[in-house]
Amino acid sequence: MVEDLAHTSTSLSFKNEESALEFKFKGNNCFSNGDNSNALRFYTQALRVAPRDVDVMGKNLVAILYVNRAAVLQKMCLFLESLRDCSRALSICTSYSKAWYRRGKANSSLGNYDDAVRDLNVSLCMEHSLSGKQHIEGELKLILGQNIREDFPPNVNKCKESSVTDQLQGIRLQCVKTEMKGRGMVSLTDIPQATLLHAEEPYAAIISKNCRESHCHFCFSELPADIVPCPSCSMALYCSQLCQIHSGGKDQQFHTKNHGTGFDLSGDLENYVASVIKEIEGVNIKKFAEHKHECGVNWPAALPAEIVLAGRVIVKFIEQNRHSGKTSTIVNLDLCHNYLQLDPESRLELHISSIVLLKCLHYFYGSDIPLNGNTISQCVMLLSQINVNSMAIVLVRSADLVGPPSSAGNHTASTVEQVRAGQAIYLAGSLYNHSCQPNIHTYFLSRTLYIRAIDFVAAGDPLELSYGPQVGQWSCDKRQLSLKEQYAFVCSCTGCSQLNFSDLVINSFRCLNQTCSGVVLDSSVTNYEQEKINPFPCRLPQQVPLELDDVKRVARFLGEETGSNRSIKPGFCLSCGNFCNLEASNAVVKKTEIWIGRLQSLLDSGECLATTLSNALRALDSLKSALHPYNKKVAEAEDYLAQAFCLIGDLQRSRDHCQASIKILEKLYGDDHIVIGNEMVKLASIQLSLGEEHAVEESRSRINSIFSRHYGSHVDAMFPHVRFLKRDI
Ligand SMILES: C[S@@+](CC[C@H](N)C(=O)[O-])C[C@H]1O[C@@H](n2cnc3c(N)ncnc32)[C@H](O)[C@@H]1O
């Protein structure tokens, strides 16, 4: 099996001329029938499998496919994409008249009239047929006519992309060793809120399996319509030629380039052609080509992402060593690992994975990666380092939920979505420890990791991020379990060791005494919360912060009683002591699940039926009768209803449910948490559709304050399409 995975001769990811021609034929048919989206799909498929050195009627097949796709993109008004495809064709075949012609059309549509005229003039010189020449001349006339019109379309190509201005501000951080957590980061100076602390490129990164067809395999951004496939295999896809070159394939050199045009061009045009080609080829590759050893074989698609990531680490380490004249193949990244905490089955799995990976790499690297006990045990260690140090590259994007059109236009609710696009190892980023109440925030722009202080951090305080679980997101027991399973430690952060409001209410039931706002907990929660009051000997003794007003309000007994006999009894209200039958409350909650679940799946499919909606509304009332008003299930139900009402165009009710959901989340996460910012984006977009200008202004100022705290000046780069974040709505 390993041989099948590793051998290029059995690879399914190879190029195939016959399939490429078949896809091209289908693309041509769709194009002539006006079916642009399928034509685009077929040409892209053809490009994925087209060998680089096949000629069709004297022209390179890949260049023809790029030009054909450029024609479809032009029809779809995707002019920039069309322009890029023409340039790609020209980098393969400089004297391709049709590619210059299409480039001219794309430039003209983008308002780049001077370039368009030059493109068409080059095309005219290179065109052999009389009818072709006449066609180009017609187009030139049209453009020259357009050139004197006053309503030029905007010059999109020349628009500068918003630049990222935030800089690291000379903050001095230090790595210290602690008894409980191993190494960790602290600051040597006071750090103001929102300060950017850290920016880092990954040592190695790999795309998530579920994003392989939708995101760039190098920078992880969403793939545009003009996808660039790897020139040597049909697996890897890129958003640009630049990313493809950085990532590298088996054979980096693209086609035999025909630099001299062989045509008698005027000096001006000759220079123009040279500048266009130079722009395409002028990529200075400094990065390690991380796809090279995986190109054209099956194993990267078949093995789990963390194994492929380990392969990239090993290969990079060896290449770097080789570059600096060292011969050692001992991969030493100086990261912690969880091997000793793994159970025997998981260890066995790591050993088997290591053997498979090394055998696959061995096919490419031969004796540089020998398959012996030494290298296997190193690989096992590397995998157990990846287990606890790799970070998910989570990209945020805004998506619109569009309701039916009305006289006031479309109803839209913008939601902020998170996409787990990749997994990576950041060597310095791996030195930050975890807290369920973090004081720093991590995010990614493309594959760059950024870390920013979200609170004021005093000199010497630990800088801790969240590995995933956070107070407000999950209850204490769930957080502990997840951290133990994934990172092999028992969390004793402030959130897990001190009473806090969120952990008390997040899964709580309401007190059946109607006048009481206290919480009732079941036994799964009481054990953990009890532990915070009377810590086990293995834990550090903690002071229970009784002064917390919110905690006192819902759990008066905990706040007022002193001494060691404060206890949390399951089923009894922590405020008035009333006994509540949790079996009955649980039965009520269970009954609602079906309706809330049905609403959720309808939302996923983008439709919403009136009957489901009214049943879900009744379910919300039942939930509220059994659960504490700040239970997270209530917030989720409110949110689903907000989305559903938006879909059917009832914006007032959509806004009310959205506000109700945010009110609960504020209690669980705190007012300034990023989750609140994301939810406020949804609320502001509904308010915008309702024309509530004053409310939008208030929401916008809150969003700006939360987003600046978490993303600083990177906000624009992260949310370029969220229009109400801009001042000029
Ligand atoms: C990404 S590493 C962090 C750096 C690590 N402390 C070191 O010495 O290299 C993750 C590991 O650090 C330890 N760790 C991180 N946060 C912790 C915490 N709050 N309490 C205890 N151990 C923690 C765990 O062993 C975890 O598997």
TrEMBL record:
Protein's name according to its UniProt entry: SET domain-containing protein
Taxonomic lineage of the native organism: Eukaryota, Viridiplantae, Streptophyta, Embryophyta, Tracheophyta
Gene3D superfamilies: SET domain (2.170.270.10), Tetratricopeptide repeat domain (1.25.40.10)
PANTHER family assigned: TETRATRICOPEPTIDE REPEAT (TPR)-LIKE SUPERFAMILY PROTEIN
Residue ranges occupied by any SET domain in the UniProt entry: 171-468
Coiled-coil residue windows: none
InterPro entries hit by this protein: SET_dom, SET_dom_sf, TPR-like_helical_dom_sf, TPR_rpt
